[in-house]
Amino acid sequence: MKQQDYIWFFILFCLCFIGACDDDQHTDRTSDCELYFSALIDGMTPEETAYRFQGGQEVGFWLSSMDITEKLNEADLARNVRFSQSAGGLVSESPINWNDDLPIYVYGYSPYNKKIIDSPHAYQFNVNLRQDTVSLIPNGNKQSDLLWTKHVMSNTLESTQLSFHHLMCKVVLLVKSNSSMPGSLIGSKLSICNSQVSASVDLGTGIVSPMGTEKNIVALELSKVPDGYEIACEAIIIPQTIQAGERFFDILTLSGASCVWNADEDLMFESGKQVVMEVVVDEKECHVQIKEILPWKEQGSLIYGEALEDLPTFEMFDFYDSHGVQGIVIEVDESGTHGWIVSVDETSLEWGTAPVGTFFPEAYDADDAMINLNAVLSVDPILENYPAMKWCNDKNINGTTGWVLPAHNVVKKLAKLISDQEMCKKFNQAIENAQVEGASIVNIDWNDWTDEHYYASSTLSGSDLVRIAGCSCMNGMFYENYYEDGVMRQQGTIFYVRAFKEF
Questions:
Q1: pLDDT in tens, 101-153
Q2: Mean pLDDT of the chain
Q3: Residues 126 and 180 in one domain
């Protein structure tokens, strides 16, 4: 081929590439200019990372054509836009295109929090107080693992792989008893004590600053225990320094005995580090030594034999039935991939059984049910005292996570729906079509109602009354009052309850 032929071939190639960007014909990233990413979490393979993100830990991104490290709110491409894992990588709720003549600055974090709008440089992140079981705090351990990345892409031909780093600190405790009391620690519960559980995080720089009060964290017992030890536990904590003389952990045995240890020197727990400690318990005291402090390189838990699928799409009143999760779609975004489902069954339960004034959980968040659940468990770890929350959280079994007693603004979505008789008929028809054992429809015969049909939220008012949402009927006349924030009842009232899950 002559030199001029090469030139014309190159020009033709460029024209085709530009045309692909303009035509929005989705083929690959270099032809349609749509942004998507692959990702790696420190210590994980691409497959393990994909499963981690596909399991509900979505990613939020700020994307810009300029360096916005100190001013994330000036991002010109995306500001806290949610990306989800699909077969093609991390993709946004709606396509984001860019001019490949410009660099792109990428700032990402996970798990995603839609409420980060005004303060990305002072994001208040909380680790969960209950990291020991998925039934109370779904993925309580993993949801405490704040991941972060910063990356600069120079052009579309560059690899899009992002490296995510752990911003918190992981503490691993390997515990055994001495020869005089072998096996006495099996089944024990271990708590990290006097730990700050909140931090201010700059999502532009990844800098973490501890803040707030000190509380106890119930650690996760590991299923694999190294040889020579009786139990192994881990907890994800805020980077901080535990002062000498402060209690650091408490081991509660099945017999009711408590083994505590106070730090004999200042203990520094740094962001992105894993601290492994050996604990030997005898009849009088604990003997502790730090075995190693290493960069936190987490190993994943890939489920082999499963294919990674693109995210399914849904419409209103579709029956959501995926990986053991079943519910009716009551809200969905334009992409059809994100929204809310409610359980096909409902019950009637009290919000709380303890006498008013016994406990004072600061469960005041109107948008985030997990904040309210953590607030309750921080003052009373016995979830049986909160039947409505427990009923919803009991649906998180066999690897299923995310079912909650909804916060007030979320339960309003159902209240708005059932207040429209035609919409409620569609909702009920969807439940009947699902043919799930134990399912229950909403009564839409106003004349059969006693007076009101209110659903409990997880949100309390400032006076510790339960904020509820629903509708009322008196003498066969229907009243729409789901918008009224003033509708509240005592915690011991019997409420209608349905579990909610975001997808």
A1: 778 899 999 999 988 988 899 999 999 888 886 444 556 678 899 999 999 88
A2: 81
A3: no
Q: Which two tokens stand for residue 302?
A: 């890939």
How many C-beta atoms lie closer than 10 Å to residue 71's C-beta? 14
> Letter for the amino acid at 110?
S
Q: CA 107 to CA 105: how far, in whole Å?
A: 7
Separation CA 483–CA 344 (nearest Å): 24
Q: Is 357 exposed, middle or buried (0-12, 13-18, 19+ CB in 10 A)?
A: exposed
Domain-embedded: residue 483: yes
CB-based contact 477:461 (threshold 8 Å): no
How would DSSP label each residue in 246-273? SEEEEEE-TTS-EEEEE-SS-EEE-TTE
What the block records as the tokens of 143 is 């949801």
Same domain, 57 and 192: no
Residue range(s) defining the domain that contains residue 273: 169-295
Statement: residue 410 has pLDDT above 90: yes
The number of domains in the chain is: 4
Task: Say what the pTM is.
Answer: 0.72
pLDDT given at position 356: 63
DSSP strands (E only) in 77-146: 78-86, 89-92, 104-110, 123-126
Residues 127 and 176 reside in one and the same domain: no
| Contact call for residues 239 and 199 (beta carbons, < 8 A) | yes
**Where in 154-311 does DSSP place strands (E)?**
161-166, 169-177, 189-202, 207-218, 220-221, 231-237, 240-242, 247-252, 258-262, 267-269, 273-281, 286-295
Residue 304 domain flag: no
**Model confidence pLDDT, tens digit, residues 413-455:** 998 888 777 888 899 999 999 999 999 998 766 555 455 678 9
Count of residues making up the chain = 503
**Domain end point (choices 133, 151, 166):** 166
pLDDT tens, 272-315? 999 999 999 887 678 899 999 999 986 654 443 344 456 678 99
Cβ contacts of residue 482 below 8 Å, gap of 6+? 412, 415, 416, 419, 469, 470, 471
Query: What is the C-alpha to C-alpha distance for residues 374 and 379, in angstroms, rounded to an integer?
Result: 9
